[in-house]
Design a protein that fits this description.
heterodimer; A: five-stranded antiparallel beta sheet; 3 helices; about 30% strand; globular; B: about 550 residues; alpha+beta; Sulfite Reductase Hemoprotein, domain 2; Sulfite Reductase Hemoprotein, domain 1; five-stranded antiparallel beta sheet; 19 helices
Amino acid sequence: MNTSEKGQLVTANRLRDGIAVFLTRSGAWSEEIDEAVLALEPEAAAALEGRAREDEKKTIVTGAYLVDAERLNGRVRAAHIRERMRALGPTVRLDLGKQAEGKGAAFAAPEGE
Amino acid sequence: MYRYDEFDHQFVRERTNQFRNQTERRLSGALTEDEFRPLRLMNGLYLQLHAYMLRVAIPYGTLSGRQMRQLALIADKWDKGYGHFTTRQNIQYNWVKLEDAPDILDCLAEVEMHAIQTSGNCIRNVTTDHWAGAAADEIADPRPVGELLRQWSSLHPEFSFLPRKFKIAVTGAPHDRAAVKVHDIGLRLHKNEAGAIGWEVIVGGGLGRTPMVGVTVRDFLPQHELVGYLEAIMRVYNLYGRRDNKYKARIKILVHEIGADTFKSEVEAEYARRPHPTTEVEERELARIAAYFAPPAFDKLPRWSASFEEAKLANPGFARWAKNNLGPHRVDGYSIVNISLKPEGGIPGDATAEQMRVMADLAERYGNDELRVSHAQNIVLPHVRKDDLLAVYQALENTNLAAANYGLAGDIIACPGLDYCALATARSIPVAQSISRKFADSKRQDEIGKLKINISGCINACGHHHVGHIGILGLDKKGEEFYQITLGGSSAENASIGTILGPGFAGHEVADAIETILDTYLKHREAGEEFLATYRRLGPKPFKEALYATA
């Protein structure tokens, strides 16, 4: 059975190397968008953002923000192409970035082509 | 080539040490991101989609073999084995770690390079004609003036916090290859009937969300008044430029809002107020700089090279490359070699570390140890003997650098776009690749002739789409990419801003649309007429009809 949940996740760049990361349920940051925790309610999203702000102060990440996303059959798809791009790496260099390291998401960055 | 003096060395070293300290303080939490951001930007370090990006300054696009080799080393050691040459004659690394950035700056400093003036609201790295010092049509090498302006503007305390960034371009040739009319200040050299030289000063050009062609405020400024006069322009801008709205802060908006005449009289009033004897450029300093740009000791060669002509007859691939990729040199027996970084289906401006090393070798072996980065994202070997061209070509061919499309449909300018850039609204590179593949047939490219296709992935226009003969702008429509096409732009001496043709296209439709436009051109052109001339003669109508008729 297909399952789908829509909500928001928090993404940021890891401070020391700039790699795009996603906040997980345990409060750790993962390079894999599929491991992101999805807030289904605005209050939960605000709480996630609050946690991210704390990690900014602790110099773990920088530039955290909320992103619209959905979880489909356990895999996470960001709503905007920009965020799908961050979860994968450049579409013109499939040999580089997360997609090359097996950390990319299940959804291609561009759609409708 | 210009070499640093002791002051420059010490200055860059101190700056690098400062940045190391700032980075350590950021990593320890002593500095917040808001505090650190302006500091890292002053050292060319941006935060992009996938990692940090370091933009390295290549003043007036000039490099030695040793410097190019160092760029290759950085690509291998701290990046993923490649770099991206930009429309500002710089290089960008896409996968830099913050913790490595100070080491990279140290590595650059070893070869007299840095990332100063590649970001922030200061006078940016000065750009110039990539054929400087070699072009047959040149009045004088513009690089001594470029270097003078670099020294004057580098961390100039009065001009380090301008309303917005500020770009200066310089050309010493009547045919403008440096796009001087679409810079904040453009300088163009002229020679009068008496044989004296003077600079035309053009102000208020620019691209971005409000594209404008600059206006001439002085027709013939004596060289020794250059710095004083530019200082007057900067002061008027610094005083009146808008700081309330980022999008209206460039000097082009000021010139447009108060009018060219008022702007000019403000500058003249400011200039007249200055104590002239103390502001004239010291002839001695300019002469000192110019000595570094002294032309190489060219051999006395015949204009006609038998070995070159024979090689062309024997090797059609070489003949085609020679026809398209060589520029006329001012000295008999020499050519300007334009190395296209636009292989079929490739990423415009990208070069691997290995390719950089090959180009460095070629410069050292055959090219007087000089390389240039062009704003069209290609590399130039400015001084190559015609007798050596075949050897250069063969080495390029072995490294996938021999694309014979310089100035043709395949020589596409494209910004990194949404594949890398945090500001982008759509991807640029895949569109460039699809067009490049569509026109891969060399006969077809030759038939179409001189053409500039420019692609930007957002309104900031790093791909200079407004001045492409065909410009493509990628936008975001409800989370999907779509592309607007403009026609009739030019960045040359006959500069113009392109006109939007009509409704936009999805990414996969763009290459077909370009084909329709070019088929229309081929149908209507007169003998020997280039695309831009046909467009200017006919206007957008036939192109519009062809493109939207079937819709």
